[in-house]
Amino acid sequence: TFCGTATTIISGAVAERMRFGGYLIIALFVSAGIYPVIGHWIWGGNSEGHPSGWLQQMGFLDFAGATVVHSTAGWVALAAILVIGPRHGRFTIHGGTIKGHNLPLSALGLFLLSVGWLGFNGGSSTPDSQSLPLVLVNTTLA
Prior knowledge:
Blueprint: H1 2-14, H2 20-42, E1 46-47, E2 50-51, H3 54-57, H4 66-84, H5 103-124, H6 132-141
Antiparallel strand pairs: 1-2
Helix pairs in contact: 1-2, 1-4, 2-4, 5-6
């Protein structure tokens, strides 16, 4: 599911910028190539209780996937939009920007995303009930 989340983040960046087939190629490339490599570097799995990813061996800790999921998706999305360019219809003929619209729907999306993050990170925490409040507070502050 983490890999699916990463490709979904990329879809939000390239929406209205490219055709769906192009996005599928990017999603396949990320899912089959980039994400597994980054995931292995950082998480690497535990071999008999010992960290096996080279970044993990150096002390790097990615608890809820902030780096593996969000940074990987963010860097791929940035590279894609730098190549693709602005959304179609983003600028007027004279170069002025088109103003955003539908603020209530955007606010609802922000609320749902925030609640989802609390559930995702809280559910990903260890069964130790003492760490759950810290995870939820850090998620809220982030």
